[in-house]
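User:
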Amino acid sequence: MPVLSWAPHNGGLTRARRILWREVRNADLTEALDVTDWLRRELDAISASDAVCFLTSRKLSAAITREHTEGGITAKAVVTAGLSNAERIGTRLPQTWKDWGTINIALTLSAPLTLPARIEALSLVAEARTAAVIDTGVTLPTGAATGTGTDCIAVAAPEGEIAYAGKHTDAGHAIGRAVYDATHAAVQDWLRDSARW
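Assistant: Predicted structure:
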């Protein structure tokens, strides 16, 4: 189905059968690495070049899935979260090139959307992610964290005639609830795990 994203592989508006995560270690992501070319070769090697693909240094077993149905429309969010790269929107901390962390969110929605509604759905995913991060209370020298410097989102929904996916719609409510719940849980898991490192 159509997938709208800014994923490092097959980002933009594309058709895909799957959204994948590629786990990497922080040490793999050197300044000299051409990540786009490397990821393309990695996916070619497993016959997955057609997929939309995220990168994460979070263990894949830490992925959190939440689903919500509202008015017959189902949203399913899958989230991996790491905040070692946390930022507050509109500010920027010095980049160490040693600490990577990101929030990757894949959302599937049962509602058949127009392109403008798909864009609106993507904005709701970002809003729900930000609300969840703020509510976990992660604080930086610049203020409350709102995400990371490398967050990625992908929204998959069938093509159709639903023209709006805002917060007052069933689709928007389902998106917000599923993404907020999955992101909040994923960030809390990361906070628990990182406290032991």
